[in-house]
Specification:
This protein is mostly helical and about 325 residues long. The protein has three domains: about 140 residues; about 60 residues, no CATH class; about 70 residues, no CATH class. It contains 13 helices and no strands. The radius of gyration is 28 Å and the shape is elongated. The termini are far apart.
Length: about 325
Amino acid sequence: MEKKLARAATAAAELGAPFDAQMIREALRYERWTFLRRIRRIGYLFGAMAIFGAVLHKPACTPGGRLSLSPAECSSVFAYYDLGTPFAFFTLMGSTLLFIWISSAWKGDYIAKGHELLYPLLDLLAMAAAVAARQGSGYVDAAKLAGKTTGLRQGFWQLPGDVAKEFGHVGDIREQLGDHAARVFAVLETDAAGLATERRGAARTLGLHVAQVISNLAAGSFTRLLDDQELPDFEPDPDRLAGRYLVRACVKSALLVIALCFAGTSIDLSTVGVLVGSLPTFFLVTYLMLVHKHGLAEASRLLSMMKQSVSGPSEVTPAAEAPPSTDAEHP
């Protein structure tokens, strides 16, 4: 973190942009509860596997059942779940958790969700200052800077949901911040597009905008990342990344449904019943994933978008209104 801050502070000084290193350092401090939240997700996975194994215990360990295990495999919990000895299981689990903590802490994952965007923005600021200071063409560095900028689209798209979740989804904070974050990214994307023609000037403009976003984001001014006069008047397209999240949710749901179907057929359940239940399970799991990640309104919008892409947009033709009939006047 200190290396990133040092490079970003030097870049901000070269561009003449304000940079409060202490405030940014405070925003990037370690948060213990983020690690506990990740451990909770792992606990959910282990809990689901334990429940699934408990459901299969009776047909597996009952003599004459559909699933027949040996008495040795049903002698203890560790033998039933094929976990080896208790010492080996807890040693492996502790080592795994330690590896997850070290790797995630090294990547800077354990900070407040609303400030996770600061890490790539600090790198972007340093790259922008380097391109702005470089004499000559700088084609390769400018292309990398443009790619780094467009790569932030996902972070800006996730920011409203993360902040809304931290504030308990009060009011319409997700909608307000979502519109503002989309406009801010549109400004950065416009600056990046200018790198193809006037590299040094566009890089300097991009660096100044990024420095301003970093300062306001670190200060918690989520709805004032850039000044209003610098934001575009047009409405940014909200669906450029939404489809990607919809595809991810569908893929995860499909994998889960396939696993459930395989488990159902392995215990001799009716194939027709498994196939009939797989389709509503797929849509239900997809919807629940989207609700958990993006909220109820956004999940409904994404599913309606998927429905329109499959069935096509519905065309509603209003009935033509007949002109009122008038009686002809006869002299």
